Amino acid sequence: MKGAVGFIGVFLSFLSEISGHQLQFPCASDPACHNICKFCEENYGKPSMECLSYIFDDYLHFFNEKMRSLNSTDWCVWDKVSSSYSDFSTHTETISDCLLIPWPNSLVEKLFVNIHSEYFKTCPTEEFSDPPPGIVLALVITPICLIPVMVSLVVIKTKNGDGTS
């Protein structure tokens, strides 16, 4: 395993050198990640939650603009928001993977909690709605009707002194 770790380190160094800049920390092997890692190194010294937050802020701003371009009633229509929501989710995962920061992480969870509390808090949830009135009536009436039947059976059974029918 030690040889594999050494190989991975050499491979990551090789990828970093391809673009002419040697990174001081591991970065994902995807060449597209190099610029993201380089940005974090130059501005934060290493991949960190602060750098991740800064990168997410730009895309969060873009997501907010897309959501605000919709009517607030459309926020609860999944077909209208799914593309933006999925793109934002994919973006957070991709950037986290580039910086070798686990996903989901506390920052991502906080962002999605904020998004849900801002845009989706008034959306109805079908899972927890009341059943139709006909079903409620049947569920309430059935036990009420069974009570007199059960009482009648007990009275009939107890009229015979020996307890047999």
Q: Describe it for me?
A:
The chain is mainly α. The protein is 68% helix and 0% strand. It is elongated and about 100 Å long. The chain starts with a helix and ends in a 6-residue tail after the last helix. 14% of the residues are buried. Residues 1-19 have low confidence and may be disordered. The chain crosses the membrane at residues 135-156. This is Receptor (G protein-coupled) activity modifying protein 2. It is a single-pass type I membrane protein. Residues 1-20 form the signal peptide.
Helix content: 55-70%
Could you say what the CATH topology of the largest domain is called? DNA polymerase, domain 1
**Whole-number total of structural domains:** 2
What is the residue-averaged pLDDT? 83
CATH top level of the largest domain is: Mainly Alpha
What is Rg? 31 Å
Global morphology = elongated
Q: Encode the helix/strand succession as letters.
A: HHHHHH
Q: Give the full name of the CATH homologous superfamily of the largest domain.
A: Receptor activity modifying family
Number of helices: 6
> Are there runs of 5+ residues with pLDDT below 50, and where?
1-19
Question: End-to-end span in angstroms?
Answer: 81 Å
Strand content: under 5%
How does the helix and strand content classify structurally?
mainly alpha
For the sheet with most strands, the description reads: none
Pfam family, one: RAMP
Family: Belongs to the RAMP family.
Keywords: Cell membrane, Disulfide bond, Membrane, Receptor, Signal, Transmembrane, Transmembrane helix, Transport
Membrane topology: Single-pass type I membrane protein
